[in-house]
Amino acid sequence: MKRRALVALLGAGVPLAGCLGNSDATGEPGRQFTGSRPGECPVSRDYGVPLPDGVSVTEARSFVAGYEPKYVSDRLVDADGERASVGAEPSTTVRVVDAGDDRIVVGVETVWSVTVETENGEGVKDAVESARYYLDERVVRRTSDPDEDPVDGELVACVPA
After folding, report:
1. d(Cα 8, Cα 31) in Å, to the nearest integer?
2. Which terminus of the chain has a smaller tally of CB atoms within 10 A, N or C?
């Protein structure tokens, strides 16, 4: 009888293997990283901005201040298929939203204007983007959705271990 109980107990653990470990800074299950980078984590954009060396407010602010204007210029300047040029480098304001021992959330607001050449001449379009970055010792994530937790945002980069 004891053997059946033991076999049942061991058998129940097999389907749960790997599902119970907390592997990220938020304590959420299922985000297991191995090696020096998460498995699905290539650097998504190479803008020449050095990755943070650690999880510090100074490093996080510096990374976001350098990365966000390049991200905006590359990804968000859109003239609906018409010829466009950025009038001036996007201007960013960076603030720390939340900081812990092993993670930081940084808020950033970027303002830019685009000169668009149309059939009727040139026009200037102004735009504003607000985003939050999540940084920990392993990853950098970005979201512009105010309802999304930054830890679930777009994977921006992996920090080498």
Report:
1. 28
2. N
